[in-house]
Write a structure and sequence with these properties.
The chain is mainly alpha-helical. The protein has helices at about 20-50, 55-80, 80-85, 100-110, 145-150, 155-170, 170-195, 210-250, 255-265, 305-315, and strands at about 90, 120, 130, 140-145. It has a domain at about 20-85 and about 170-315. Helices cover about 60% and strands about 5% of the residues. Strands 1-2-4-3 form a 4-stranded mixed β-sheet, sandwiched between helices. Strand 3 and strand 4 (about 140-145) form a beta hairpin. The protein is elongated and about 70 Å long. It starts with 19 loop residues before the first helix and ends with a helix.
């Protein structure tokens, strides 16, 4: 749905003008609906498993999964900026050496009404950037050294505006909620599947044939639900990127800045086998462009097709 050109045709036809206001609202609504889809899968999985096993036993599983998932994800949420910066060995930006970076962020802070985030730089020969932090008051923006070398003032402002948009849209908080739901689904599914090997649950006085069907349905949902939830989670990540692009245009009022930066990022695309990244794969969704499989698009991509993003920006 997100790829608007056919395979084999690298260029997209520009049809009509896009309003960044419409793009922001549309992608936020779609993100919220997708969260609803994950929650529905959580309810269905719980209901099917509760039919297949003893309800009391399932209630214990639900409590354990909820507490474990919330504790693990929220701990990461409150330390998201520290974890992200440490994972890429980022260093604080210098006001003299990275003056253009500071000026760009100061300008976008004024335009957006957001507080000035802490600025960091990571060593990399590729253009990239990410934002992290649980709220605007505890936010950080990190940009690669290559971004300073290869981007001009307008392009750097476009990248900064995109990252400030993630902060303004509370995307870390939104994706944390998604991670909690996906984590709970995965934990419940694993506990149910593993428990089948160690017990004869739910035999009681129920019809054995009917019970076997319920258990089979439970196993089917336990296998499929985490996969579907992860696919939906990746789709949410892609929608948040579109929303950040549009919000970035709202801040700068200059779509070519980010569009041209993405064109330069696109030129750096190389097969993953030829790349030597020092970035944890769990960090990939945070970056403006996937630092690993940049050419991969579709259901299992953390980012939208870069050509589609450029096309939308050029139509704003």
């Amino acid at each position: 749905m997100e790829n608007s050109i056919e395979k084999g045709n690298p260029k997209r036809e520009k049809i009509g003008h896009l309003s960044f206001h419409d793009q922001i609202q549309r992608n936020k609504i779609k993100s919220a609906l997708m969260i609803g889809v994950i929650f529905i899968f959580f309810i269905i999985l719980g209901y099917v498993i509760s039919l297949a096993v003893d309800p009391g036993y399932f209630f214990i599983i639900m409590i354990f999964a909820t507490i474990f998932s919330l504790t693990y994800v929220i701990a990461g949420y409150y330390n998201s900026d520290k974890i992200a910066l440490a994972s890429v060995r980022a260093k604080p930006a210098s006001k003299t050496e990275h003056r253009m970076f500071y000026h760009s962020v100061e300008g976008i802070s004024i335009a957006s009404g957001l507080p000035m985030p802490r600025l960091y730089v990571m060593e990399s020969n590729e253009i990239n950037a990410f934002a992290s932090g649980r709220n605007p008051e505890n936010a950080v923006i990190c940009i690669t050294t290559a971004a300073f070398e290869k981007l001009n003032k307008q392009e750097l402002e476009g990248v900064v505006a995109h990252e400030m948009s993630h902060i303004a849209n509370y995307d870390i908080r939104f994706m944390t909620l998604t991670a909690v739901l996906v984590g709970m689904i995965s934990i419940i599914a694993q506990l149910f599947l593993r428990s089948l090997w160690f017990s004869n649950m739910g035999r009681g006085n129920r019809d054995s044939k009917g019970q076997a069907i319920l258990i089979l349905l439970g196993v089917l949902f336990a296998i499929l639900a985490p996969i579907v939830a992860q696919i939906v989670s990746l789709a949410i990540s892609r929608k948040r990127e579109y929303a950040a692009d549009a919000t970035g245009v709202k801040f700068t009022r200059y779509p070519p800045g980010l569009a041209n930066a993405l064109k330069k990022i696109k030129k750096e695309h190389v097969p993953e086998s030829e790349k030597k990244q020092k970035v944890a794969k769990s960090m990939a969704p945070l970056f403006i462009s996937d630092p690993f499989k940049k050419k991969i698009t579709g259901l299992f991509s953390t980012h939208p097709d870069i050509d589609d993003r450029i096309n939308k920006l050029e139509r704003m």
